[in-house]
Amino acid sequence: MISEKIQSALNEQINKEFYSAYLYLAMSAYCNVIGLPGFAHWMRMQYEEESLHVTRMYDYILNQGGEVHLKAIEEPPKEHGTPLEVFEQTLAHEQFVTQSINELMDLAVQERDYATQSLLQWYVTEQVEEESNVNDILAPLRMVGDDKGGLMMIDQQLAQRAAPAPLTPGQ
Ligand code: OFO
Q: What CATH number has the domain bearing residue 115?
């Protein structure tokens, strides 16, 4: 069982995770248009990963006997600038999501809701990985600058990203 307060905060977070999925799908389309299929693929995989972040939280609310409220998803921007700017925006967005997860954790601690803390610990760890993955891409992007050959090499590396593992029952 979860309190009304926790239920409402988790539903807000679901909306943010949906927005993340939407944003990365928009970025994927944008990267396709600017001729970077590897970047587009990476963003498409990120979209899939965000969808799993949605369903993990959605399943948790239902498993706790709570109610899911799906709210309108904000429209993401269409233009994202240079490939470097695409990943700078990605890092800024992930930092925003990390902050949001941390605030949720503060609330779960205040409410002494141990089950929700356990769920959120997964997201805390995930956010460390999300930010680190993006930083690992930003470093070579900053190094190559406008060099087309360098960008092509990064594009080929990003094309290798594997699909995220599906959720298994109980996760
Ligand atoms: Fe759901 O981690 Fe990114 O936003």
A: 1.20.1260.10
